Amino acid sequence: MSAPTIEAVQAELVKVIDPEIRRPITELKMVRSVEVEPDGQVVVGVDLTTAGCPLKDTITKDVTDVVGAMEGVSDVRVDMGVMTEEQRKELRSMLRGGMGEPEIPFSKPDSLTRIYAVTSGKGGVGKSSVTANLAAAMAADGLKVGVVDADIYGFSIPRMLGVELPPTKVDDMIMPPVAKDVKVISIGMFTQDGRPVVWRGPMLHRALQQFLSDVFWGDLDVLLLDLPPGTGDIAISVAQMLPNSEILVVTTPQVAAAEVAQRAGIVAEQTNQRVVGVVENMSWLDQPDGTRVELFGSGGGEQVSAELAKGLGYEVPLLAQVPIEQVLREASDTGTPLVLREEDTPAKQALQSLARSLSHRARGLSGRSLGISPVG
Length: 376
Ligand SMILES: Nc1ncnc2c1ncn2[C@@H]1O[C@H](COP(=O)(O)OP(=O)(O)OP(=O)(O)O)[C@@H](O)[C@H]1O
Description:
The chain folds into two domains: 6-95, 2-Layer Sandwich (GMP Synthetase, Chain A, domain 3); 108-360, P-loop containing nucleotide triphosphate hydrolases (Rossmann fold, 3-Layer(aba) Sandwich). 41% of the residues are buried. By secondary structure, the chain is α/β, with parallel strands linked by helices. The protein starts with 5 loop residues before the first helix and ends in a 16-residue tail after the last helix. Helix 6 (201-213) runs parallel beside helix 7 (233-241) and helix 8 runs parallel beside helix 9. The chain has helices spanning 6-12, 56-68, 85-95, 127-140, 157-161, 201-213, 233-241, 255-271, 300-312, 326-333, 346-360; strands at residues 31-36, 41-48, 75-82, 114-120, 145-149, 168-170, 173-175, 178-179, 182-186, 222-226, 246-251, 274-286, 292-293, 318-324. It binds adenosine-5'-triphosphate (ATP).
């Protein structure tokens, strides 16, 4: 059997996708050279974006598998190198679509990415659990999803989605790690040893701006933001930077929690954002004997939805009620959100249908240019 041509090997390498940037390594100009010996031995030279690229092994394996499967190939060797400064600059410029200066792609009027900022009145109501499950469910349904974990007090998204690698950098561009098919960036990835962040408003604003402009998100269908609880500075920064973002309010059924959640939602009136709906989490606990215990009382979700509708002047639906389930907590703790687990539980169903209703919604027009110009 004759050895393949260099062109044939190059064409086959289109199948090797960079796990972070998610484009073929050929398109990213990472393939430096291809050599083919008459006896079928192939040497592929690959240049990584950085010397310590954590995905080196994955790329080596993928190249070996793809080329090794070609007819006439007897052996594959991958010769790893590193891109030059000039090559990295070129790559960065290509990823930014030829534009030099960083800008927030989602804030452009023609952006088609739906943005949901997940907020709550107080901590511990399950805001991060809802965000992580929504992201995983939407990605499993084939959407391109990104998550910004901006919860400075409890950056738990990476753990819940099982993120294993840190972000990498191509010059000043940040490549977000991908877990469960979701691109994730968290404030916890930029703090020392996961220590709590003691930042004031302007620093948070700057961090958020960096997450949105310096991170390479690619084309996203949905961007989810896990905000810190309450009505803090970051909610205002989000509204300024992403005027087309919509708010999802998470509460528990408890009246006290509902009252503070309302306040978090009503901020939308001042920031001109739309509240897309309310999620009531920890609604009840189903007992093995079939009885239901309402551990945190009842009616909080309905209350927030009714009060926000009254205050904002439009319908704010209660989109889901998610029961308390041990498996939901365990799933988050082990890095595989409940929606990706095999067992079918009421909480999983509630989260999955919430994800579908949010991904199939028509996009709101708030903050978007309608492209209307005066006549005559
Ligand atoms: N429906 C549920 N059933 C069982 N456990 C839950 C449920 N929702 C959340 N939890 C658990 O409750 C804890 C708090 O949840 P989570 O971290 O999502 O809250 P949070 O509102 O994001 O809190 P913070 O803002 O402080 O980060 C976690 O251990 C999570 O696994």
